[in-house]
Fold this protein.
Amino acid sequence: MDVLVPYYIMGLIISYIVLCVIFIRFEEKKWNHGICSKCGKPWRYKYSSRKGGHVYYCKNGHYIKIKYGSDQEW
């Protein structure tokens, strides 16, 4: 039983990394390089949410919440 503990921990770490990559890819698709996918207008920064994300609106009232940093220019 003690032999399986390192494999269990490694499995959890790998699962966490895979989920993070999936969420980041999904958010990058929503961010669309700073352009609203519904109307084609650029996103404008509105405020930071309490949960640590950024909220953006376009001129037509569509909004997006970015949590994983897809809006950051590296």
